[in-house]
Amino acid sequence: MTKLLTNRLHRCRLNLVPAVLYLLLWSFMSLSLLSQGFADNANTSRLPDHELEIARLIYNTNARSGWGPGRPWWAIDWPDAEEHFTAGVQRYTAIDIAPDSRHIKLTDKALFDFPWLFVQQVGRWALDRNEKQHLREYLLRGGFMVVDDFHGPVQWQTFASVLAEVLPEYQVIDIPVGDELLHVLFDLEQRTQIPGRRHLYSNGQNIVVQMPHGPPRWRGVYDDDGRLMVAINFNMDVGDAWEHADDPVYPLSMTTLAYQFGINYLIYAMTH
Question: 33: how many CB neighbours lie within 10 A of its CB?
């Protein structure tokens, strides 16, 4: 009996070897394809070939942040967020939008070809002096930046300290209820917190949102003419609402609100 069990265990180990090798190979190929995707989308030598193409900012992380969960923090919800959101823009508007974002650095001259700059996890970013100067020029020349998916006082301080060096003469304020951004297409008067997928739980009957920080804040920075240069989604994760738009667990009302905010942002960027 002992010999029989030993032989069976030996065969199990032999059968596990190919499976382990397969998983390792699959992981390597997945990371390679993901890296290739980053490289392809970072090709900014060509001009945008659609009426609108979202630019997703590439940045270095600060000393408190590592590489990220399987990808860099700046690409946390890519590509699913863009794939779902741009498809929604095509359904609900007449905007000719590219099906994916372009990954771009602040020092790239092509930055000024993109009116809408999307930045996630700004509680982890680190910009050098040259990048801050380029971001300042971009915003003052008419660029529109939307920041998303950062939470709590520590991450706010990281973001705000960088922004204060980029635009020291301008203040961060709450976006007024009557601001054009909130009414340019959809009338957005809700202040519902848009959660990350990881903060949704089922109690057996309903989906419960348990975000670690609150309240949600829609804030912004305006130039001297009252144009919104920076839109701030704080204590929210709009990118996750786009990314998980086809997830039955994610509340439809919150996905809808995230789409409406995103589309208003796009139209505002293209018209201001």
Answer: 10
Instruction: Find all residues with CB under 8 Å of 99, minimum gap 6, and list them.
Output: 82, 83, 86, 87
CB 53 within 8 A of CB 114: yes
CATH architecture of structural domain 50-271: 3-Layer(aba) Sandwich (3.40)
d(CA 70, CA 84): 20
- Cβ pair 82, 54 in contact under 8 A: yes
The model's pLDDT over 74-125, given as tens digits with 9 standing for 90+, comes to 999 999 999 999 999 999 999 999 999 999 999 999 999 999 999 999 999 9
Distances (CA, A) of 249 to 86, 171, 239, 244: 21, 38, 16, 9
What's the length of the chain?
Answer: 272
* Model confidence pTM above 0.70: yes
- Domain segments of the chain: what residues? 1-41, 50-271
pLDDT digits (tens, 9 = 90+) for 109-120: 999 999 999 999
148: CB partners within 8 A, 6+ apart: 118, 119, 120, 122, 233, 236, 237, 238, 239
